[in-house]
Design a protein that fits this description.
The structure is a single chain. By secondary structure, the protein is α+β, with helices and mostly antiparallel strands. 27% of the residues lie in helices and 18% in strands. Strands 1, 3, 4, 5 and 8 form a five-stranded antiparallel β-sheet that branches. It has a five-stranded antiparallel β-sheet with strand order 2-10-9-6-7, with helices on one face. α1 packs antiparallel against α2 (45-66).
């Protein structure tokens, strides 16, 4: 058990003791003065003066000892205060995708570090498998500045073939920049025309959302004649892939029959 000392009581006791001592000295000096006052010498006033000093000190010490101690504030407690607390301001809620996920929606896998939210992409307005040209629609949430220069690439799954049994191009194909033009809510829509090649409906496709400086985008589009058959095999360093999603191979309809 810890031993605690009441310092206020101790101070009062010390003052009382010193007051008693001062009173004793005052009495002794006064008696000395009474004994020597008949002598006609200057030093005889000294005991009287000392007695007066000790008497004043005695009165002052008694007054201090008798003075009640100042009230101390109550100890603080860890219990919650009853005073109303200020409302806490939490972080703003994260943006959420507006569309309800459907059976024909595919998840978008993020790769980059951009502060963007990629909502699921709906294939062919919710109808799968695809049998020809189809629509892609989605939503990208985030700062306008981060969505300003987004572009869309498509890669052909090398394990799949067209209706004639031929593989697709090995590189990336840059789609028109307006593919990811979004409204104020970040919603976008793109009509995939299969590169005007209906026989390619049976290709599996990986779409990549990327960002790049506008000058690089313009340069890639100006070189389209060089990569429109086999794709872009090497991207410039300033192109950053942010996310990707896959569209599974479709089913060949009558218009997709192989023409040899």
């Amino acid at each position: 058990m810890a031993v605690t000392w009441d310092t206020r009581n101790m101070n009062g006791q010390v003052l009382y003791i010193t007051a008693v001592i001062s009173g004793v000295f005052c009495t002794i000096l006064f008696m000395v003065w009474l004994h020597v006052r008949k002598h006609d010498q200057k030093w005889t006033i000294m005991p009287f003066a000392a007695a007066v000093v000790f008497g004043v000190a005695t009165i002052a010490q008694v007054a201090l000892a008798a003075k009640p101690p100042a009230p101390t504030p109550p100890p603080t407690s860890s219990s919650p205060s009853t005073a109303p607390s200020e409302p806490k301001v939490g972080p703003s809620p994260s943006p959420s995708c507006s569309a309800t996920p459907g059976p024909a929606d595919v998840q978008v896998k993020p790769y980059g570090t951009a502060p963007l939210v990629f909502c699921p992409v709906r294939i062919n307005n919710g109808t799968i498998p695809i049998t020809g040209p189809f629509n892609l629609s989605g939503q990208i949430l985030g700062p306008d500045a981060e969505r300003r220069h987004l572009i869309l690439f498509v890669r052909i799954d090398p394990k799949t073939r067209d209706t004639c049994g031929k593989p697709g191009g090995r590189g990336r194909f840059l789609l028109p920049q307006e593919a990811l033009d979004a409204d104020a809510e970040g919603k976008w829509s793109y009509d995939e025309k299969l590169g005007d090649y209906p026989q390619g409906v049976t290709f599996g496709r990986t779409y990549e959302i990327a960002t790049a400086p506008q000058s690089v985008i313009d340069s890639l589009m100006s070189q389209k004649d060089g990569w429109k058959e086999d794709g872009i095999n090497e991207l410039p360093d300033s192109v950053e892939i942010l996310a990707a999603f896959e569209v599974p191979p479709g089913v060949a309809g009558r218009d997709a029959r192989c023409v040899r």
